[in-house]
Each structure stands twice: as C-alpha cells, then as structure tokens.
Amino acid sequence: LLLWLHANYASPFFGAGPMEDLGNSKVYAMYVSSGGMTLGDRDYYLANDSRNKEVREAYKKLIIDNMRLAGYSKKEANRIMKNVMKIETALADSAWTREQSRNLPAMYNVRTFAQLKEMYNNIPWDRFFIETMGIESPETVIVTELSSVAQANNLIGTLTDREIKDYYLWQYVRQAAGKLSDDFADAAFEFNKVMSGVAAKQPRWKQALATAEGLMGEAIGQLYVEKYFPQSSKDKMLELVDNLKTALGQHIDNLTWMSDATKAKAHEKLSTFTVKIGFPDKWRDYSDLTIDPSKSYWENVKAAIKHNVDFSLADYGKPVDKSRWYMPPQTVNAYYSPLSN
C-alpha cells in the first residue's frame, strides 16, 4: 500500500522525487523529504492558540465526514480520524519550522543509497524507487529534513497495521474527495470556511475549470494565448527586455564603485538570465494522455495525475531544461526558484 500510494496518489509518511540539485542546478538529483501532513504546516497540529485549535477541530470533522461518505460507520470513521491525527501530529512534531525550511544549505544532506537504507531501515528502499517511479535505485539521494524522515521511519516500524491502514485509507479518500459528489464538496467547503475564510462555494464550472487548468495548464494556455497574446506581442516584449539587459550592462560598466573583476562577474550573471515572456517556446505534449468520456470524472483525474507524475519522473538522469515553465501562461503571478540559480 505504501508503494502503491506513492506511485499513484499521495506521499504518506514522506516525500520523494527528482528535482534540480541544490549543489548543481544543471542536473536533476533524487530527493527524499518530509511529507504526510495533510495540513502542511506543523503549527496546525502543535500550536495551542485558538486559531490553530479551531483548524484542528475542523480537520477532524472533515476526516469523519469524508470517511462516513465513503461508506464507513460512525465508529470506524472516528477510529480512522484518531489514527490519522496521531500519525500526522507525530510527523508534525519532527517537521521543520518555517524559518528552518528557509535554510537551504541545511537541507542539502547527500547520502549514498546504502546510507539511506541503514538510516531508515523500516522503509523498503530496494523496492521503493523501481516500484513507485520506475527508476533504478539511485547511487545517492539528498535528504532534506533528516529528523522528519527519521520520524517517518520510526512510525512505520512501530505503528500497528490497523493504524497504518487507517492512515492510508484517509490518504486515498482525501485525494478523491474533491472529484466526487456534492456531499464531499460540501464537507470540504465547511472545512475551507475555517481554514481559509472562504465565504461562498465556487460554482461547479469554476471547480471543473480549476481542475483542468491544474492538471493540463499548458494545454489550456495554448488556447488562451492564441486568442489573447499572439507571437507578435511576445516578440515586442522580448525586444524590450533585450534593450533593458543592454541598458543594465551599460549601467554596470559606468559604476565607479565596482572593480573590473566585479563588473565581469556582474556581466556574467546578467548573461545567464532566462527570459520567459508570455508562453513557452515549446509547448508541452499531452498526446499520450487519454481522457475517456465513458469513464468517471475521478478516473480521468487519476489518469491526468499519473501523466503528470510520469512527466516529472522522466526528468531524472537528464540535464535541467531551463526553458521549462512552472506556471501556465494564463496565471497572473510570479515565482522565484532557488533551485534554478
């Protein structure tokens, strides 16, 4: 079940996957990291102020409501909730604070595969990478939060089968819940009113659009830019940015407080800027994703999730593609990626 969930739907106990190597952003490395907490932040589980207590109670109710809707009795749903809270609270207790998570050098803990197996011996690493990712066991991995993965390993080795199975049941149901009936959507809305302060539930068409955009963002983006941002507009903006880079270069040359060596380094940094305007130069190919109208909404969502997982895993062992977009063109936002610098 651990391997099946990691391969398809969720990351119980810990997370794993390829990302840019923090020590060499030109290549992808295999990471093992913290995971398994539905609420994400440790404070939701551990802090005793009224706000976090309120969120915890709402989360407990969400678990019970969803498990009842999934067919479990009231007694079973309460048991599942208690076991989930026990496990996720234990994971939170070992999780890093927000401040600690900003210390990227402290998260760069390179370990050999043999060391990984020795440190976390309750996790079936010999099977894990091949069965969840289709990747042979890597020579080295980067463990980001040593204490969190150690806690996951300890829990897997000490919890009862019933506790672990209840945790896995919730991991699966919570992934599916948002793509099921209105009863599940209503339960999620009641939780989100407490968690996020939302005042009204989104209409169904917006929810469906958000799902499609989240799973096939560039496919929708390609249609969007055809209507609202043609190639001619992109070319104008690229020319503008090129002019800005030229001006910045001239500004560097005219600085009196920089030495020649420092100016050379500044020019080197300026030359490495990756400019992304409007939309990707090469669109992502979704041709191997099959959406079958004869299947349920959730079955098609599962197919899209698996497609995205496989897309990410295909990066491993390849040079980093600096031209890839991590946000669809129709999204008005910005991001900074330390892994890409």
Please characterize this protein's 3D structure:
By secondary structure, the chain is of the alpha+beta class. It is 57% helix and 8% strand. The chain is globular.
Q: What are the SSEs and their pairings?
A:
Blueprint: H1 2-8, E1 14-21, E2 24-34, H2 43-46, H3 50-69, H4 74-94, H5 98-101, E3 109-112, H6 113-119, H7 125-133, E4 140-143, H8 146-158, H9 161-177, H10 182-195, H11 204-215, H12 217-228, H13 231-254, H14 260-271, H15 297-313
Number of strands: 4
Task: Give start-end ranges of low-pLDDT stretches.
Answer: none
Instruction: Please state the structural category.
Output: alpha+beta
Strand order of the largest sheet: 1-2-4-3
Number of helices: 15
Helix content: 55-70%
Mean pLDDT: 93
Question: Which sheet architecture does the biggest sheet show?
Answer: 4 strands, mixed
Strand content: 5-15%
Oligomer state equals single chain
First-to-last CA distance: 37 Å
Q: What general outline do the C-alpha atoms trace?
A: globular
| Rg calculated over all Cα atoms | 23 Å
Please write the string of helix (H) and strand (E) elements.
HEEHHHHEHHEHHHHHHHH
